[in-house]
Design goal:
382 residues, alpha/beta, Lyase, Ornithine Decarboxylase, Chain A, domain 1, TIM Barrel, 2 domains, 8-stranded mixed β-sheet, 8-stranded parallel beta barrel, binds ligand LLP
Length: 382
């Protein structure tokens, strides 16, 4: 990894964002999605850092929010409210009111009780709000079970056999306007065939709606495009060209239907790195532990999903040795990697944990009363 600046004087751990890479990634997203007139909403949950959000906003991208606070933040940093979608299986009344008051583009709804509450709150405000139904297409995304969301056994979405009941109820709810259908089947999906399967299923559902006399104006396909955690240097921009192309060649749209995406990880993951320092190298039984000053409080993905992040020692050119890289938190799950080869590590070596821009800083906690890690940006350091 190439950090141009002298970072030795910055206290670790900290997040370091490569702003050039973020902008190049956004250029590619814009170029490839525009070819087909697709609308992209950035999934704020992946990284809600203000500076990152402002950069993304400048690409005329919408926002995908999953809480009232994300909606407020999106508007504060300048996303247009008419490009905000609001998802989530458990929207609270307060959050729904925030969304209604801000006249967002669309609620992605997941159950009849939720539709009823949105209708009631919209009626109190004398407004008609746009909703899309989040449908469960029962497609296996071939990803980690904790980030799989489109199977019938998951808590998300409305199952296909319930569509008639839901549509009947919606016809009675006068403050809702059904304007679309929504899908999100999982995250970190690297098998592009999954998107083909989703497209084919969406086509079926689309004709089912058409037979009922409904043409959903907006088809939202969610997010999920995976990134290369193994080779962040070589593959630092996901293959957006192939991603949008596969949808374009498989989706059968009816006239005037518009397509939307909610991309999170693929936009921000590779521009972020967690920078940490070696505190101690400890000999264990048949093992060597590199104990660093970052832990699951800064990046919880390995502890939570056994996720792999590429790790580099930026200070050492020595021969490689085998290590477990672990954090200082009082939990055995507080590790970043097991049995990996790294150039010989010694105290104060600087270690970069790569591909940490998505679901990294935003999922940090102050467990053990630790300080929150600060963020630094390639265009601000000299
Ligand atoms: N839309 C909806 C409805 C979602 O639930 C998500 C992510 C996205 C869009 C964005 O998906 P992406 O493009 O980032 O894959 N913390 C986990 C990932 C959780 C994803 C939750 N939903 C991780 O660190 O891998």
């Amino acid at each position: 990894m190439n950090i141009k600046q002298n970072i030795n004087n910055i206290s670790t751990p900290f997040y370091y964002y490569d702003i050039d890479l973020l902008k190049t990634t956004l250029d590619v997203v814009f170029k490839e999605s525009s070819k087909y007139g697709y609308n992209v909403h950035y999934a704020i949950k992946a990284n809600a850092n203000t500076k990152i959000l402002k950069i993304i906003r400048d690409y005329n991208i919408g926002a995908d929010c999953v809480s009232g606070n994300e909606i407020t933040k999106a508007i504060e940093v300048g996303f247009n409210s008419d490009k905000i979608v609001f998802a989530g299986v458990g929207k609270s009344d307060k959050e729904i009111i925030t969304a209604i008051d801000n006249n967002i583009f669309c609620f992605n709804c997941e159950s009849v009780p939720e539709l009823e509450i949105i209708n009631k709150l919209a009626a109190q405000k004398e407004k008609i709000v746009h909703i899309a139904l989040r449908l469960n297409p029962n497609i296996d995304p071939h990803t980690h079970k904790y980030i799989t969301t489109g199977l019938e056994e998951n808590k998300f979405g409305i199952n296909l056999w319930d569509i008639d009941t839901v549509l009947n109820r919606i016809s009675e709810l006068k403050n809702l306007k059904l304007c679309g259908i929504h899908f999100h089947i999982g995250s970190q999906i690297t098998d592009l065939n999954v998107y083909k399967n989703l497209s084919l299923k969406v086509n079926e559902i689309n004709s089912l709606f058409q037979k009922k006399g409904i043409v959903p104006e907006h088809i939202n396909l969610g997010g999920g495009l995976g990134i290369d955690y193994d080779n962040p240097g070589k593959n630092n921009i996901p293959d957006f060209k192939a991603y949008f192309e596969i949808y374009n060649s498989n989706l059968k749209l009816l006239p005037n239907q518009k397509v939307h995406f909610e991309l999170g990880r693929s936009i921000v993951a590779q521009c972020g790195n967690l920078i940490t320092k070696v505190l101690y190298v400890k000999e264990g039984l048949n093992k060597k532990f590199v104990i660093v000053d970052a832990g699951m409080t800064e990046l919880i993905r390995s502890a939570l999903y056994n996720a792999h992040h590429s790790i580099e020692n930026l200070s050492s050119n020595y021969d490689k040795e085998k290590y477990d890289v672990v954090g200082p938190i009082c939990e055995s799950s507080d590790f970043f990697a097991k049995d990996i080869m790294l150039p010989k590590c010694t105290r104060n070596d600087i270690i970069a944990i790569r591909s940490a821009g998505a679901y990294g800083q935003v999922m940090s906690s102050q467990y053990n009363l630790r300080d929150l890690a600060k963020a630094y940006y390639s265009d601000e350091l000299d």
